[in-house]
Amino acid sequence: MRAPLDPKLRSLLRLEGLLMALVGATGAWVCAATGWQIAITALAPDLTILAYAWGPRFGARLYNVAHSYALPLLLTALGLLLTPSVLPIAALWLAHIGVDRALGYGLKSEAGFGVTHLGPIGRDR
Predict the structure, then answer these.
(1) Beta bridge partners of 116
(2) Can you tell me the mean pLDDT for 15-20?
(3) Residues whose CB falls within 8 Å of the CB of residue 48, separated by 6 or more in sequence, listed in order
């Protein structure tokens, strides 16, 4: 069994999420994100929860890919280098992940949806 996350560390990680949410929201504002981009990006990463229909291992992995900072940061690089039109999506995606982390919704464990790197969520608390 894993040792529980230190409350100070959990608070720091949640603060980091809040800051990333603010950075992403500011980036979306600067890039003049449209209402459609906001609506789609607010929901799209969470659709990966449907992957849990194929089991907790596959579900957790797909959810974590969509909720990792790596892909939106790569999309940001792509936008800066080649296709500026993707920058609002990248910024909104970062904001989505940041909000999730600030609220305590972390990356999922294959042990179950309620087990995250920020501690348990839902009924598992």
Answers:
(1) 108, 119
(2) 96
(3) 59, 62, 63, 65, 66, 67
